[in-house]
Specification:
Length: 507
């Protein structure tokens, strides 16, 4: 019987090591500027070696961008990033090299994170942009929610509606389960079981909450929401109740069936429908929400004086931090125990890594956004009909990055353009082939064209999906009928039969 032998072998191999620092760098790419500010604030409290950079911004990048020759993209002056920072950006796409456990603090103070914010400018392929946009007029406050949230408003009413502690507990639990629209979409049996109560107790408190303002709040579906509002107005008669029980027929504009079900004539149905249209289907939206926040652009695109486009990061929402080298030297000299020295060293490494990661993040976002604008300059100049098909690989190949990096950069990021505020992912759209082998069309541009064709309809010229396919093919867009139907439904446009009914009644 052969014996068991022990041997010590050395093997060489490559592996992807996801250190906490690399994970942090990847995470930073996905955050918007507002989310990044919150993250940095937490790091400032946690790390004594980090401090805000209060220095005024250097206007040199903007001046250099203005001097860029027309018709040529300005080469972004991006210094070669450190190996560890660059590896972090492409961590999931390329092999990590080197050991990131050491981080040199020397020279970090010379450039704070955020100084990489630059600007790129060039001339679009045709014409100037339109839209009369001025970045200075952007008002973030216009996107902010009201200070009082729906939950706060409901809790205030609950405190005066009952003094029973059990009812207050049930009411508070139900209020916390309501969504932003003001609906309670949870199962009452599950709630009763969770609280150890009878369903009747939960229903009693729910009935009390449904009498609160705004009218219709805490409903479990649209029909109940509308019924609560009508009951408050003393307008919930049997005919109206029957109408609310058949809302799908109303959505299809099948007034003949509604007339029969409600037991009224056509004139009464018209009045009832008009009354329902005056109600609020989402009463909770009249109040703020804890999860609602202002949408601030991460990237700004402006038309330059020479007719080109300037791309820059929104520095007002971009956090700027640096490492306090003087304080690092002082506390390092004072450290006596190994534990203190290890803590100071760890703080120094984390601070240096964060500054480098923020700097690289800014450069990467600017590089990706600049390439997107290069690809979609016709959209900026002439509108959504000229949006080109674009995918992550095209942008990634153009700027020598991994697709996953581009995906993370465009996640949760918004760009302010002369044509409005868009999410960066809006510019990535699939291609619709062209007739005769011509240049493909953007799916978003095709959807826009479908909407324009339908907007021009009259009661006698309603276009079926087949007719839309024919018209689009005449314009050089090769598209299937099911694709037209899918795009139409995505635009919340009813079928041709329903549109014909609507137009006839409107006429």
């Amino acid at each position: 019987m052969a014996g068991i032998l022990q041997r010590l072998d050395m093997r060489q191999g490559q592996s992807l090591v996801m250190t906490p620092q690399l994970q942090q760098a990847i995470k930073l790419l996905q955050l918007s500027n507002i989310e990044l500010t919150e993250f940095v604030e937490a790091e400032l409290e946690r790390n004594p070696l980090l401090e805000r950079d209060e220095r005024s911004e250097d206007p040199q990048p903007a001046a250099e961008a203005a001097d860029a020759p027309a018709g040529e993209p300005r080469e972004l002056e991006l210094s070669q990033p450190s190996n560890d920072a660059q590896d972090a950006i492409d961590a999931d796409g390329d092999m990590i090299h080197g050991d990131d456990s050491r981080s040199d603090l020397a020279g970090v103070e010379q450039g704070a994170a955020g100084d990489a914010v630059g600007m790129s400018s060039w001339s679009p392929s045709s014409g100037g942009g339109g839209g009369g946009f001025d970045g200075e007029d952007y008002d973030a406050a216009a996107n902010a929610s009201r200070e009082v949230t729906l939950a706060e408003h409901m809790h205030n009413q609950l405190s005066t509606a009952t003094s029973d502690p059990v009812e207050r507990l049930i009411g508070a639990h139900l209020i916390d389960l309501a969504d932003e629209d003001g609906y309670l979409r949870a199962d009452l049996d599950e709630i009763a079981t969770r609280l150890g109560l009878e369903r009747s107790s939960v229903e009693f408190v729910l009935s009390m909450l449904q009498s609160f303002e705004p009218a219709g709040v805490m409903a479990r579906d649209l029909s109940e929401c509308l019924a609560l509002q009508l009951r408050e107005r003393d307008r919930l008669d049997p005919a109206m109740a029957a109408l609310l029980d058949n809302l799908p027929l109303l959505a299809r504009h099948d007034y003949d069936a509604l007339t029969e079900l409600c037991g009224v004539d056509a004139e009464d149905i018209d009045e009832m429908v008009a009354e329902i249209r005056g109600l609020t289907p989402k009463p909770g939206l009249a109040y703020g929400s804890d999860s609602t926040r202002a949408v601030e652009p991460d990237v700004m695109i402006r038309e330059s004086p020479d007719g080109g486009w300037q791309v820059e990061l929104n520095t007002e929402t971009l956090p700027r931090v640096l490492v306090n080298q003087r304080y690092y030297a002082e506390i390092s000299a004072m450290a006596k125990s190994e534990k203190d020295k290890e803590f100071i060293s760890e703080c120094g490494q984390n601070a240096s890594w964060l500054v480098k990661s923020l700097d690289q993040r800014a450069r990467t976002i600017l590089k990706v956004a600049s390439e997107i604008v290069r690809q979609q300059d016709m959209f900026l100049a002439q509108g959504v009909a000229y949006l080109r098909p674009l995918n992550l690989k095209t942008v990634a190949d153009a700027i020598s990055m991994h697709e996953s990096t581009v995906s993370r950069v465009t996640s949760n990021k918004y760009v302010s353009t002369p044509r409005g505020l868009f999410e960066l992912k809006y510019f990535f759209t699939s291609a619709i082939p062209a007739s005769g082998g011509g240049e493909a069309h953007s799916a978003e541009a095709v959807r826009h064209r479908i909407k324009l064709l339908i907007d021009q309809e009259t009661a006698t010229t309603v276009l079926s999906d087949d007719k839309l396919v024919e018209l689009l093919r005449n314009e050089g867009i090769e598209i299937a009928r099911r694709t037209v139907a899918k795009y139409r439904e995505a635009l919340n446009i009813p079928s041709s039969v329903q549109r014909r009914r609507i137009l006839k009644r409107a006429g």
